[in-house]
Amino acid sequence: MSHRNAPLSETGRLRLARCVVEDGWPLRRAAERFQVAVSTAARWAGRYRELGAAGMSDRSSRPHRSPNQTPLRTERRIIKVRVIRRWGPARIAYLLGLNVSTVQRVLCRYGLAKLRWLDRATGRVIRRMESATCGDLVHVDVKKLGKIPAGGGWRMLGRASGARNSGADKSIGTRPHHGSGARGYHYLHTAIDAHSRLAYTELLADERKETAAAFWLRANAWFRDECGFDVQSVLTDNGPCYRSHSFRDALNGIRHRRTRPYRPQTNGKVERFHRTLADEWAYARLYTSDADRCQEFPHWLHTYNHHRGHTALGGQPPASRVPNLSGQYT
Questions:
Q1: pLDDT at site 242
Q2: Residues in the chain with pLDDT < 70?
Q3: Per-domain boundaries in the chain
Q4: Rounded Cα distance, 234 and 139, in Å
Q5: How far apart are CA 259 and CA 220, in angstroms?
Q6: Segments in the chain forming alpha helices (H)
Q7: Which of 97, 149, 234, 274 is the most exposed place for a label (fewest CB within 10 A)?
Q8: What pLDDT sits at residue 31?
Q9: Does residue 328 sit in helix, strand or coil?
Q10: Domain 138-321, what architecture?
């Protein structure tokens, strides 16, 4: 049926047509019997004479010709810009002087992949890794995050005022330090489950092999004891701390996978988490001290795991994919 209020199905059309063609009913009588217009009865009877029972199905409503369709030469220019420059419809439309909706229709007509599906550097379609269950694969990585001097950094004070801290010793990142004027770094070690996007993160003093190994032992215990699943494999980059014997021993038989060199996209889930972390916590507002920002981190991480909707999970938080997770309803 073409729509919910259509009086005739394909079977009803066939019965109507047979009444007219085979049984000799007048068109008006058949139209009254099947509660349709006389012209409708004539159309189905004519199709039955021409095509038989096969003519009772719906035909495409596409016109036989489209005089206002975008010229083929223009379509080729749109496709050429998209393939070479990998631009979206808005930029292509501005360059070629076309309407954005026109460019979008052409791209859809030719089945070109959306930009978010492509690797911008190579133009190849991204193969996204999907894990069937929790623990099948856990992404692990480290993000380096600069500390905030006492009173706020350049984001709060301005570049001229914040420049006075630029000459401070940046090596004072090897031990936890909050609230002083010296600059240094935090190292956010993160382990994120590929299936649920559940994240375990710690602010640590460095990224040495002993630190990375000890972090994994705590992360693995959290996944096992708090989340209720065992980790089967771990994906990391080729950093020295992950190539060490200490980290290998900490895995204790868990399969260790490494990304290809210079291909951070392979570890994209944890890379994207770090970007979200920076946007929604580290640089979300102006902090007056490093201690102030560090104090907010556990609250943000709980919100991310238990309350913040994730687009890859259909708008649900990561905790929704882990049954009976501790703290799921707080």
A1: 96
A2: 1-3, 113, 116-129, 151-183, 326-330
A3: 10-56, 72-117, 138-321
A4: 6
A5: 20
A6: 10-21, 27-34, 38-51, 72-85, 89-96, 100-109, 154-157, 159-162, 209-225, 240-243, 245-251, 268-277, 290-306
A7: 97
A8: 93
A9: coil
A10: 2-Layer Sandwich (3.30)
